[in-house]
Design a protein that fits this description.
Number of helices: 15
Structural class: alpha+beta
CATH topology of the largest domain: Aldehyde Oxidoreductase, domain 4
Strand order of the largest sheet: 5-4-8-7
CATH class of the largest domain: Alpha Beta
Largest sheet: 4 strands, mixed
Distance between the termini: 16 Å
Number of strands: 15
Number of domains: 3
Shape: globular
Length: 498
């Protein structure tokens, strides 16, 4: 699709997206990946990104590093963040929220020594990886290898002679010797961006409500699409190489299919889903339509999803849950805090509205206590800046925790303001490119200030509480509009540009 930037390389020193660059255009030219950088340059970028927390799952990082190295070669100033934002417009990062990547840029270009911060004796990478695993709710490592794209992704580890399997569009699989061959046999056509705007599918419950909210279909938008491989008689390689995909891969069947096809063909088989496959078949965040009264009671209508009523009842038993059958893509309670976060943000926004009324509407502050016991308070400044205060047990690694908090702010901002899928009455999704999902660009991301509190208790996930509190605070700052995405910037001003 040429839209995520993850495959960016340098062609004669200039950044190019490899997946849409014809081979005939690079004949006789020098192609450089991160692995081809001088060791000093590789270390400079990996140290800086480790020092800021600018790489989490690591899937997008090598392409971003190539882009920024190309920008650095033009002698762009360390503080020219507008130039950095323009360069990053060719990329998507779902994890970090961009700020820590921009900070790493400034560190590298200014000549700041990141080695002491990234690899110093006081940095325990076992603790850093443990904190990342807690925040991602899936095994995750923090290391220079991750920054350099060596986190062991499925497509990177498969045997070179493995067959390739892709969906045939009719519930079966096409198996061939290579990915291009499989696509040709399947008649695969790349999807494009739809022309209609996302609309919430559920009607509001009847009642006299203090706040009302309707959300639409939201794509998890993880960058590494579902993939696995297996040898005959072996165990399939996990599709969760380094990170949890925000719950979007917990029900994927690519591993099972790889095992079955390897047994059938008596040869190793790679099962690879395209972006279009993931969008069409992968689980989405369940849409809701809710009304809440001033006393905190209310009704949440939600697209029927296994386990969603129980999830909401755990955190807001005073809310009546009505599940509704709707024709549309699959949904899952495994998607980041599905149901739980909606209930939490409704109650937090109700408190924010009461507090805002008490001080003439000048405060946009929301607090959420998670099921794990983390407490996040998010404040939206009059300048659009965002302040996060977080308590979630022992920090383990402040750099990693700060990065995940900023990433949670980014995802919440997108959810409220820009993210959504256009789904037809027949349930067909028209937004099949990753750029069409509405993930916020670097240029749209306000500055985030994070305050972390060291506590004696066991470390618990803190970023999900930040996610909920940010959504409530931003919604409050915009005046509690009913329908999401609102299409507005943080304070409800200029439209968000995609």
């Amino acid at each position: 699709q040429g839209q995520c930037g993850c495959c960016t390389v340098l062609v004669d020193g200039a950044p190019r997206v490899a997946c849409v660059t014809p081979v005939r255009r690079i004949a006789g030219r020098v192609i450089t990946t991160v692995d081809g950088f001088a060791e000093e340059d590789r270390e400079r970028w990996s140290d800086a990104l480790l020092a800021t927390g600018g790489s989490q799952c690591g899937f997008c990082t090598p392409g971003i590093v190539c882009r920024l190295e190309g920008l650095r070669s033009k002698n762009t100033a360390a503080d020219d963040l507008d130039a950095v934002d323009r360069a990053l417009a060719a990329h998507l990062c779902r994890c970090t929220g961009w700020q820590t990547i921009r900070e790493a840029w400034s560190m590298v270009v200014s000549g700041s020594s990141a080695v002491e911060h990234a690899r110093g004796e006081n940095r325990n990478f076992d603790d850093a990886s443990r904190r990342a695993t807690i925040e991602g709710r899936s095994t995750q490592q923090v290391s220079a290898e991750v920054v350099l794209g060596r986190a062991g992704f499925s497509e990177d580890t498969a045997p070179s002679d493995a067959l390739v399997a892709i969906p045939n569009g009719e519930g079966g699989w096409v198996v061939a010797g290579s990915l291009p061959e499989a696509r040709a046999l399947a008649g695969k056509v790349q999807g494009r961006h739809g022309t209609t705007s996302p609309e919430p599918p559920l009607a509001l419950p009847e009642g006299d409500w203090e706040l009302t909210l309707r959300t639409g279909w939201v794509e998890p938008a993880y960058l590494e699409t579902d993939a696995s491989w297996c040898e005959p008689g072996g165990e399939p390689f996990t599709s969760l190489a380094n990170g949890g995909a925000f719950g979007g891969k917990l029900t994927t069947d690519v591993g099972r299919v790889a095992r079955e096809l390897a047994y059938e063909h008596r040869q190793a088989v790679r099962v690879v889903l395209s972006r279009e496959d993931v969008v069409r078949t992968g689980p989405k965040r369940p849409p809701v339509a809710a009304g809440i009264r001033s006393d905190g009671s209310g009704v949440i209508r939600v697209v029927r999803t296994d386990g969603i009523a129980e999830a909401i009842a755990r955190v807001a038993p005073q809310l009546v849950v009505e599940e509704v059958d709707v024709v549309g893509p699959p949904t899952s309670v495994d998607i980041r805090g599905a149901g739980v976060v909606e209930a939490q943000l409704l109650l937090a926004a109700l408190d924010a509205k009461k507090n805002a009324q008490a001080i003439d509407g000048e405060a946009h502050v929301a607090s959420v206590t998670s099921e794990d016991g983390a407490v996040a308070t998010v404040a939206i400044g009059l300048d659009g800046g965002i302040r996060v205060d977080l308590r979630c047990g022992r920090l383990l690694d402040a750099i990693v925790l700060r990065s995940y908090a900023i990433g949670a702010v980014h995802m919440a901002l997108g959810w409220v303001t820009s993210e959504g899928l256009s789904v037809g009455e027949d349930g067909t999704i028209s937004d099949l490119t990753i750029r069409s999902f509405g993930v916020l660009r670097s240029a749209d991301m306000p500055h985030v200030e994070v305050t972390l509190h060291e506590e004696d208790g066991e470390p618990v996930n803190g970023s999900d509480a930040v996610f909920a509190a940010t959504a409530a605070a931003v919604w409050s700052a915009q005046g509690w509009p009913t329908d999401w995405p609102t299409g507005r910037s943080v304070l409800g001003g200029e439209p968000v540009t995609q």
